[in-house]
């Protein structure tokens, strides 16, 4: 099961060391999501990581950094809606409904589906799916190996998510709190 860490949106002192430790320990990929820190902060942060570490980073918001730092890929969102025709990296996207998963799954390497549980890092961001809805989505093949659970995910909840057929888990609050 794929394990993904998502950074906090703001700049953090010593963040390169934190990302290095996450990649060395438990996580396969780190999503660098820094809307509050800016492109230049991300450029400096990526410059502190090794090329092997950068190859395991998916960038949000600042797609120009993908090629500059040979990153793993780009996360599509309201700031990055299209990629060049010659783009060959990983494509990811966040979905907040099962209909979105169906619509975007074929065009992405994996999708985040959230919030599965009440968010740890976003106050008032509550679960959008009941257990029965998740079970139905799993039976219908909507949830599969290309869908990553996000929102309130903790290590204790991974076995449950694996039993539903999620291909991975993404954590932010559980990692950075």
List keywords for this structure.
177 residues, alpha/beta, TIM Barrel, eight-stranded parallel beta barrel
Structural summary, described in words:
By secondary structure, this protein is α/β, with parallel strands linked by helices. The protein has one domain (2-176): Aldolase class I (TIM Barrel, Alpha-Beta Barrel), CATH 3.20.20.70. The chain is built from 8 helices and 8 strands, in the order E-H-E-H-H-E-H-E-E-H-E-H-E-H-E-H. It has an 8-stranded parallel beta barrel with strand order 1-2-3-4-5-6-7-8. Helix 4 links the parallel strand 3 and strand 4 (73-76). The longest helix is centred in the first third of the chain and has 10 residues, at 15-24.
Ends apart, CA distance between termini? 23 Å
The value of Rg in angstroms is 16 Å
Helix/strand/pairing class, anyone? alpha/beta
Lateral arrangement of strands in the main beta sheet: 1-2-3-4-5-6-7-8
State the major sheet: 8 strands, parallel, barrel
What's the CATH H-level homologous superfamily?
Aldolase class I
Number of helices: 8
CATH architecture: Alpha-Beta Barrel
* Dominant shape: globular
Total beta strands: 8
Ranges with pLDDT <50 over ≥5 residues? none
Approximately how much beta-strand content do the residues carry? 15-25%
CATH class category name = Alpha Beta
Domains, number = 1
Mean pLDDT: 94
